[in-house]
Amino acid sequence: MNIHFGFSYIGLIFLLMLMLPNIIWSKNKPKGYDKYVKNENKVLLLLEWLGEMLVTCLSLIFSDFNINKISNWSSILLIAFIIMILYEIYWIRYFKSNKTMKDMYSSLLGIPVAGATLPVVAFLLLGIYGRNIFLIISTIVLGIGHIGIHLNHKKELE
């Protein structure tokens, strides 16, 4: 394992792709969202919060995520980027919808709770691309919390 500290512009791009729609969402929450937030599992919330903090920091402080040369590993980064584009498509679809809880927890291309699943998978692939065990583990922690919370919300809807 060969990890390099330094700024990651790729990490910054991924974080911007993640955060900009979420900032817009904060003014466009689905109807009845607050009712579901009250029932969130505290352990999942803790894992989500810890994962968010770690993934945000780690994405920026390791230069391993930057493009140094084109290789077979580059295909992993390309797939991660395509997944982030799908995440943007998910948000465009949500913002054009009636903004209901059903819209919020819809799937995209068969991917359940796409708004939660897509960025977790993309950051996991970013960690694999950068061969960075810290980002991989942090993303798994984030995924357990974030996807778990949103699957519970979806279950409550049904």
TrEMBL record:
Out of the domains of life, which is the source? Bacteria
Keyword list (alphabetical) reads: Membrane, Transmembrane, Transmembrane helix
Transmembrane parts of this sequence: 6-25, 46-67, 73-92, 104-127, 133-151
* Protein name from the UniProt record: Uncharacterized protein
